[in-house]
Every structure is written in structure tokens, then in C-alpha cells.
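Service request form, structural biology core

Requester: graduate student, group of Dr. S.
Request type: structure prediction, single chain
Budget code: on file
Notes: please return the result as C-alpha cells.

Sequence provided:
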Amino acid sequence: MLEIASALKLDFPESAKAQRQHFLVTQPMDNLGSVLKKFLTSQKLLGSTEVLERLAFEACEDAFNDGVRILELRYAPTYIAEGHSHLTYQTIHTALLKGIEKARTKFPMAVGLICIIQRNLSLDKATDVAEFAIENKKTFIGIDLADNEEGFEPKKFATLFQKAKSHGLNITIHTGETPSALAGQWMRDSIEILGASRIGHGVQSIHFPEIIQLLKEKNIVLEVCPYSNYLTQAFKTYDENPLKKLKELGVAVTINSDDPGMFGSLLSDDYVIAQNNLGFTREDFKDCNQTAFEHSFIPLNEKQKVWRL
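Core staff response, request fulfilled:
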């Protein structure tokens, strides 16, 4: 970030501590919305295909060096294009694919891309992104709905996700992250109306027994991110995270990193929390990794080339 900001002659603090506070989220924020506002600082750095290619390659490289062999990355075309009118969705996508292909050539890993629709933008923009994902379904493995949950219920986007699914795109929806009395309904709608086979976060399901039952009946996988849940204050402490409880209740769970670049973290940081605060054993990790392998949207033949559990 500092290299790119310097090249673009952007203003940022001089001290290392202040720089981390300026660019990164490394301490708990008030809520998910306040975390997302922090992303507007990094958004300014994403203005060239060269930067995008580099970031895609380095995201893969960092994950590989952390022990990851099957990697799903996701991005919102609207987020990168905002303020960079010279970049089209297609040029953005092509640059990211170029960086990923460079990484796959260098590292023995399987990598897939998921397209994100930002739920806080207009339905017209969301439609454009959904159509873009469908047009590029050979290079996307799935489609996602993300951004602030409050005030942007998932069922508004039902027709877009139903169409994407009919064209063969897998569905994962960010929901059930924010503490809310509506979290259970958001999760139900994401599964029953939008067609999600996986849920990004979904940790508030612990408060809704009927949603726990739905997750089990339909074998819906939760993508749980303990470190992120703490930073966004989905749960006030690491110890409160329901990852282990959900697993013990029979819900299919996986352990994931969330925006590791912005949060200054790696997947292994989430593993440390699972082990030290939630009592995860080696067998628990093995179970979660097997679930992740089976439910990853990346084609099976690509996964099998790099994975031996």
C-alpha cells in the first residue's frame, strides 16, 4: 500500500504506527459499517491494471506461503471501478486473471474467482454486475452478495441470483454477520430465495435454532472468519465466537480469512484463534479442511491436483 500510495503521490502519515492506522483495520471497530468505510482509503490505490495484476499475484503468493493450496478470491468490480473511470469491468477482470495465472504457473495451487455484487448500490448497478458475471462464467466460479447488511435485505436481489444460478454460477451470500433480530430471516432468504449453497459468516445463526436446523437439512456451509468477526464486532471477544458450537451442533463450517490485506492478517491467524480461544483440535481442523475441499466451487479435477488430506 505504501509503495503504491507513494507512486501515486497520495498523502499518508509519516510514522509506521500512523500508517497502519491510516490504511489497515487492526483493532475492533464500532460495527461492520465503520470497517467498510476504511476500505475507501485503499480504493484509491486500485487505479491501474498493473497494480491489480500485482495484487492478485501477491494475494496468491501470500496464501501459498501460509500453507493454502486451494484458494478462492473474490472482488467487487464496482468497488475497483469507482473513481477509476478508465477501468472497465472487463479490464479489471482481465488484469486480476493475469496475476492469478502468473501465480498458478509459479505455485502448485488451485485458484478461483468469485464476483461480488455490492448490496448497497442501486439495483441497476447490481444487475450490470450480475450480467457481467454471467458473461464471464468461464472465469468466475461463483457470485456473491456483500457489503453492509443493515437496510439491504438479500431478497431484493433474488432475480439476479436466480438467473446467475441458472447459468451455472455457484452462489454464496454474505449474511448473518451483523448482530440483528433480522439475521435469521436474512439467512433463510439467502438460502431459500437466492439459492445460496454457502453463507459468508452466518455466525448469528447461533441465536436462531430454526436456522441451525435449516443449515443442517440443506447442508449449507458457513464460511466463518473468527478474526474478522472480532474486528467488525460481530462478537465482542474471540471466546464468544460460535464456530466450535456450530460445528458441535452439526453445522458444516469452514475457517476462512477475511480481507487479509486490509486486516493485516493471514489464514493462520484465524487458526490460532480457533485453537487458543475456541478449543479446536487437530481433528477439528482436518474436518473443516475436508468440508472446505468438498464445498469449494473450484472444479474437482483442479482441486485434486494440489490437495492430499
